[in-house]
Amino acid sequence: MEDLTEVRNSDLSASMSSYWNSPNHELDNLKQNHEVVIVMVPFPAQGHLNQHLQLACLISSSYDLPVYYVGSATLNRQARLRANALNPSDIAKIHFHDIPIPEFASPPPVFNALSKFPLHHKPLWDASLLLREPIASFLRDISLKSRRVIVVHDPFMSHNVQDVSSLPNAESYIFNGVSVLYLYCFKCLFSGKSVQLAEELLKKLASLEGEMPDELKDFTVLQIPHMDIRSGDIHNTSKVIEGEFLDLLAQVESKQQWAIGPILPTKLHHISNRNNICLEWLNKQPPRSILYISFGTSTTFSNREVMELAIGLEQSKQKFIWVLREADRGDIFTGEARRFELPEGFEERVKEVGLVVREWAPQPEILAHSSTGGFMSHCGWNSCIESITMGVPIAAWPMHSDQPINGFLVTEILKIGLTVREWEKREELVSASTIENVVRKLMASEEGDAIRKRAEELGEAVRCSTEKGGSSRIELDSFVAHITR
Fold first, then answer.
1. What is 264-295 written as a DSSP string?
2. What is the dihedral sign for C-alpha 55, 58, 59, 64?
3. Omega of the bond prior to 262 within 30 degrees of 0, cis?
4. Contact between residue 246 and residue 235 where contact means Cβ atoms under 8 Å apart
5. Are 293 and 313 in contact (CB under 8 A)?
6. Are 127 and 105 in contact (CB under 8 A)?
7. What's the mean pLDDT in 419-426?
8. Residue 12: per-residue pLDDT
9. What is the pLDDT of residues 73-85, one digit of tens each?
10. Which of 320, 314, 289, 155 is nearest to 222 (CA)?
């Protein structure tokens, strides 16, 4: 496959020239000499798009600050389409700013690969490396009409926002959408800095050998030289969840840190009335009786894995909602998704106890529903923080990247989950009997009840941290006070 970093910059420059000369440029609508403008620059992957949009809505609605969300037209459309749990009126306040992106291949995921890492997204990464100039042009223009421009960006977009340093009234902040435990481990174990985690903790941590493919390492190396221009870091976590690791991170990080999470809405009053098949089905179920199963947007299963999971769920005799979808392509609006085959007659046999969903599901609302009592998850940080916030225990089945560390945090440190498969055995097929046993333990045992109680107590504490006087609200107020000083 052609490496898209070789696409000629002249092609992009030509499209940008046409764009900036358009009389409909949206910056014309920005008031002259606006006090402070926030510019969100997410990385082009669903989990990153989602968290940046949540933060954009939180800042815009809570502090009445203008917020721009910068990305390609396709990715901005994706972010809006999948804006689970967000109030439409809050989304309407966000200025979605579309910038051209070079054409790129959008191959389907390789479902039989031993590694679950979504390398089929590499063409999109390559194309995203060419966004530096259009982003810089936008920032230069907006900086002329504002007292201060605050750029909040994904760490993987550091290369593209490096020109912030050339603007006298602009500053940048990295928004880390991963657990602080993972970030701390990454900094210590991959940068050569002294490791300060307790020795017994390190012994329990799953080996990260092979966790990061070479392609991601190369992409990360491109970002690192441009990270030091930032003025600080924001984290989608709470001191209630990761206070110990925030303290450890502060010892190895010179930049100011703010733990402002969870940034998703914690009160979802509309869930019972929303017209959605999952929520309608949940409304008919007993409290805490449903296991929700979803593996995010970057994981796809082989046919055999799907069969084992189906058999395990059926044999467990527990109620469930299973979101059965293929991993996203780089462009979710192109190509045809593979349809998974289930055991013959499966859906008919389980129709009284289980629901199989093949389209996008409103995950935060599902987790917040009183009928949901467990979550089988890949342990992406979006899913972890949503489940923790809603007080739902996790059956941890990590697939790649930060997920094994997140799974360790959930099961070994917070003790609000069970492990489905050890990370060291990630290339082995998980049998139906293993799945059956984990599901029964989580949903129908005294041990599962104790885990669920701890999860509910932690969820209550996390939600309180976002209220006035809570640690996360204090941190968010501090951050906003800092950028509007």
1. S-S--TTTTT---HHHHHHTTS-TT-EEEEE-
2. positive
3. yes
4. yes
5. yes
6. no
7. 92
8. 36
9. 999 999 999 998 8
10. 155
Distance (Å, whole) CA 185 – CA 205: 10
Q: Do residues 377 and 397 make contact, with C-beta atoms less than 8 angstroms apart? A: yes
Residue type, 185: C
Q: Does position 182 have pLDDT exceeding 60, yes or no?
A: yes
Question: Residue 469 half-sphere exposure, CB side, CA atoms within 13 Å?
Answer: 2
Q: What's 340's DSSP letter?
A: P
Tokens in use for 14? 């030509």
CA distances from 445 to 65, 318, 437, 441, 442 (A): 48, 12, 11, 5, 7
**132 with 160: CB under 8 angstroms?**
yes
**Tokens coding 314:** 């059926």
Residues annotated as catalytic are: 48, 154
Q: How far apart are CA 275 and CA 292, in angstroms?
A: 18
SS3 123: helix
E strand or H helix at 171, and its extent? strand 170-176
* Residue 450 one-letter amino acid: A
Q: What is the rounded CA–CA span in Å between residue 364 and residue 389?
A: 9
With tokens 């179920």, the residue in question is 285
pLDDT at 8 over 70: no
CA R_g for the chain: 22
Task: Identify any residues that bridge with 321 across adjacent strands, giving them in sequence order.
Answer: 292, 355
Residue 154 in tokens: 């994904």
Higher pLDDT: 330 or 271? It is: 330
Give the Cα separation of 100 and 112 in Å (integer).
33
Q: What is the number of alpha carbons within 13 Å of residue 289 lying toward its C-beta?
A: 13
**Amino acid, res. 270:** H
Candidate from 55-59, 263-267, 308-312 with smallest mean pLDDT: 263-267
Q: Is 0.85 topped by the overall pTM?
A: yes
Which tokens sit at 400? 């790649």
Residue 190 DSSP code: H
All residues at 6 or more sequence positions from 80 whose CB lies less than 8 Å from its CB, including other chains: 53, 91, 96
Q: Residue 86: how many CB atoms within 10 A of its CB? A: 22
Amino acid, res. 447: E
- Residue 226, pLDDT score: 97
Largest Cα span, the chain: 66
